[in-house]
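Worked example

This section walks through a single chain of length 153. The input is the sequence exactly as stored; nothing has been trimmed or padded.
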Amino acid sequence: MRKTKFLIPMLSLLLMCSPITAYAEDENSVVVEQNEDVEMNQEETAENGYQSLGNFKLTAYCGCKQCNGKWSGHPTSLGTICTEGRTIAVDRHVIPLGTQVEINIPGEGWHTYIAEDTGGAIKGHKIDIFVNGHGNCYNPAYNCITEVRIKNS
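Given that input, the structure is written out below as tokens.
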């Protein structure tokens, strides 16, 4: 029973932030489908001069010791000071440091950030968005799966 109580809110959050639809086929199974407008959005992205990097898991972090451990108060991997609305942590093997990255924040739209930081838990298709104040780390808009793109050069 505990697993069900945990999984239902997590599934709801995932569905709110991703281009899929899920519904119960019967009481023992769930059907997950990709929304039809996803392909159109990817085509529009290419036409508008952007390259889609696909869907990424978003999380958020702040400058506190709980989020940064021994690195709290230190500059980013790029040597900058973390700034809300600009700084993101990425896997440098997926997105090079210094890259301008556009993220489709659920309920807000596209925002441009700069890949300035890395982190031990940031591997693969995961992005950590810097926010001011630890309480903001739990904002559902920053804890979901959403589309990420970069401007074509």
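What to look for: The helical segments are 2-17, 37-47, 65-68.
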